[in-house]
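Hello, quick one for you while I still have it in my head. A protein chain has come my way and I'm curious about its shape. I'm sending you its amino acid sequence along with the backbone structure tokens. I'd be grateful if you could look everything over and explain what you see. Here's the protein in full, and shout if anything looks odd to you:
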Amino acid sequence: MAAPDGANLSVVVHKAGDLRLENRPVPEPGPNEVLLKMHSVGICGSDVHYWTHGRIGDFVVKNPIVLGHEASGTVVKVGSAVTKLKKGDRVAIEPGVPRETDEFCKIGRYNLSPSIFFCATPPDDGNLCRYYKHDANFCYKLPDNVTYEEGALIEPLSVGIHACRRAGVTLGSKVLICGAGPIGLVTLLIAKAMGAAQVVITDLSAPRLEKAKEIGADFAVQIKSESPEEVAHLVEQALGCMPDITVECTGAQAAIQTGIYATRSGGTLVLVGLGPEMATLPIVNAAVREVDIRGVFRYCNTPQRCLGTPGRRDIHCRLCQRVRTWSPQTQTGA
């Protein structure tokens, strides 16, 4: 299949600091795949990090890769074995696809499979391009009342859902979220949707905290020069008690320390943000107070919940900026 004007314009990172617009061949879908004409693709912090640093931990850009994994589009061609999708269907993409049925897939935790394909994670290409092929089983039809932009938000929302599930957020929970960036904000929305009674959010940035309050945070604590223990005290003052749950979304050592000090005894701290491989933490404080510390890696079994959530229209593009034209000098993204 030839794209109009022969173009499959793609955003490709070659190495740290080397980002290019390239025309690539239009891919041919395999038997279980669909070819998509992309409509909306979010620019994630990981995309920016691969551009500026060329790596995230063990994931290193050794060969050029197409960026983008928060995406929606229209089916333009289906593979021979695909039965649940057809040409013209509007879909959102789950970017992580298991390559084999291993022990993690068998227990429903395919996000932990070491062989998983994940868009825009070296060496796998993403979908910040005009045409992209993907496993049909990991494409989800968008209801008529969900826009393409909202469909692209299903991916970051999935991170928030998985974090809140791992944390055990439920009706009446009192929650601290460290970090009011995009993932912190979607986690706030999901925590509220799952019944959290009160949510306090912390950040260095006053504008980010204002956005958090606008979309539902009960309390916002701006960090200036306070120590992690002092921030924990400010959180307790705001809530009137220590939070049951802390969701750490920055990866910063000081924020993880705050999470340990702030969480009530017997509570749960989940780590969503990825920072340096090694960190100095008050682990004895967590141990003697039985604060459970849980990791979060991407997500699994979440897109269906995003699409089936009542009030999903409120989890919306208030969090977005749009980029209609793009160049390597563009600094903001949808």
Notes: The mean pLDDT is 91. The domain at 157-295 is CATH 3.40.50.720 (Rossmann fold).
